[in-house]
Design brief:
This protein is an alpha/beta fold. The protein has one domain (about 1-220): TIM Barrel. It has helices at about 1-20, 40-45, 55-65, 85-90, 100-115, 135-145, 170-185, 205-210, 220, and strands at about 30, 50-55, 75, 95-100, 120-125, 155-160, 195, 215. The protein has an 8-stranded parallel sheet with strand order 7-6-5-4-3-2-1-8. Strand 2 (about 50-55), helix 3 (about 55-65) and strand 3 (about 75) form a beta-alpha-beta unit. The longest helix is centred in the C-terminal third of the chain and has 20 residues, at about 170-185. It starts with a helix and ends with a helix.
Length: about 230
């Protein structure tokens, strides 16, 4: 089932890229494998999937150990607590959920200790839902400014989650505001901040239209959790 789901999903992504006037390889599919076992991941790997996303630091740590010999690209996409940073930094290729200077500083500390450059995304709260994490425009700019003094951190882009609503106009607006924020950051001298991590199972086609470069998709690949 997972192989079939991946194949179908990649066909839809490619078709949407072409209709939006984008190159197919401009979008990277992250298979969000949180709470799914390693057998599900193995099936996805056998189907050619190499990018995987995890939400929980200890689950990520355990899965990373299991698949350490595989040539995978790991994305940590969940909220990160300070005491869990050590599990993620240097193992995840990308950390998508940077929403405070405190977390950024701890990642810098761990990355320096390990002698690596950690790629991160700054989390932007593009909706008005109080339950969403991330910062507003001013907070994202503050994080970008702080990162310039951290030699072991590379800010790759901005991440957001669209609101859980049925109105596609509201969802599109959230994605568009995120894209415009990245453009504003680039105009302000942060030329390395290019990527857009946005779009999940329910809204990834709209995200592609609005410029997403990383899609975080779980249900459409692995199915619903029981």
């Amino acid at each position: 089932m997972i192989r079939k789901n991946l194949s179908h999903l990649k066909e839809l992504i490619a078709a949407k890229c072409l209709s939006a006037g984008r190159e197919v390889d401009s979008v990277t599919l992250i298979a969000v494998s949180k709470l799914f076992g390693t057998d599900h991941m193995r099936e996805a790997i056998s189907a050619g999937q190499i990018h995987f996303g995890e939400n929980y630091a200890q689950e990520f740590r355990d899965k990373f150990a299991v698949f350490s010999e595989e040539n995978l690209v790991w994305h940590y996409i969940g909220t990160l607590q300070t005491n869990k940073v050590k599990y993620v930094t240097g193992n995840a290729d990308y950390i998508h959920s940077i929403d405070s200077v405190k977390i950024l500083a701890e990642i810098q500390k761990q990355a320096e200790k390990k002698g690596i450059i950690q790629k991160v995304f700054l989390e932007f709260k593009s909706s008005f839902e109080t339950t969403k994490s991330g910062g507003g425009i001013e907070e994202v700019f503050t994080l970008a400014a702080e990162s310039t003094g951290m030699k072991n951190i590379e800010v790759a882009g901005v991440m957001t989650m669209a609101p859980f609503v049925d109105d596609i106009t509201i969802i599109r607006d959230a994605f568009r505001r995120t894209r415009l924020l990245v453009e504003e950051l680039q105009r302000s001298g942060y030329s390395g901040i290019k990527e857009l991590s946005m779009g999940m199972t329910g809204d990834y086609l709209t995200a592609i239209e609005e410029g997403a470069t990383f899609l975080r998709i779980g249900t459409a690949i692995f199915g619903e959790r029981n």
